[in-house]
Write a structure and sequence with these properties.
Elements (H helix, E strand, L loop, with lengths): L6 E11 L3 H11 L4 H10 L5 H18 L9 E9 L3 E6 L5 E6 L2 E9 L3 H5 L1
Antiparallel strand pairs: 1-5, 2-5, 3-4
Length: 126
C-alpha cells in the first residue's frame, strides 16, 4: 500500500518578492509539513526579513481554505506544500573606478504555500 498523499485545499502565492530565493527558502523550509498554527508561531519568532511575507502568504492560504469550503476546520490545517521559485532578475549597474561599470542582479522570488488536511486525520489522533 502506498502512503496516502495529503490533500491540498487551498493555496496562496506572493509573486515578485524582493528577496533572493536562497534566503526565502531558509524560512520556508522551517514550516513545510507543519500544523498551520505552529507554522505561524515559528514565523513570528523567526529573525529574518522575509518571515513576515511568508506569514502573510500562509495566513492568506488559510483564509482561502476557509472561504473555499464551509466544512473546513481551520485548526486542523497544515502546510502541505511550500516552495520558493526564482522570479525575474533586475539587472542594475554600479559605478566602478576609472569610468567603468559593474553589473549586479537584484533577485526576486515567487513564494507559494498550499494548506490542506491529512487524509487519515481521525486514525492518527486515536
Amino acid at each position: 500500500m502506498a502512503a496516502e498523499r495529503p490533500v491540498s485545499l487551498a493555496k496562496a502565492e506572493a509573486r515578485y518578492m524582493r528577496v533572493s530565493p536562497q534566503k526565502a527558502r531558509l524560512v520556508v523550509d522551517m514550516i513545510r509539513g507543519r500544523q498551520a498554527g505552529d507554522a505561524i508561531s515559528i514565523l513570528g519568532a523567526t529573525n529574518k526579513r522575509v518571515a513576515a511575507a511568508v506569514e502573510k502568504v500562509l495566513r492568506s492560504a488559510i483564509s482561502n481554505a476557509g472561504n473555499k469550503s464551509e466544512d473546513v476546520d481551520v485548526d486542523k490545517l497544515f502546510v502541505t506544500e511550500a516552495c520558493v521559485n526564482e522570479g525575474p532578475r533586475q539587472k542594475r549597474i554600479r559605478p566602478a573606478p576609472q569610468g567603468r561599470a559593474f553589473r549586479y542582479q537584484r533577485r526576486t522570488s515567487h513564494i507559494i504555500v498550499k494548506v490542506g488536511e491529512r487524509a487519515g486525520e481521525e486514525a492518527v489522533e486515536e
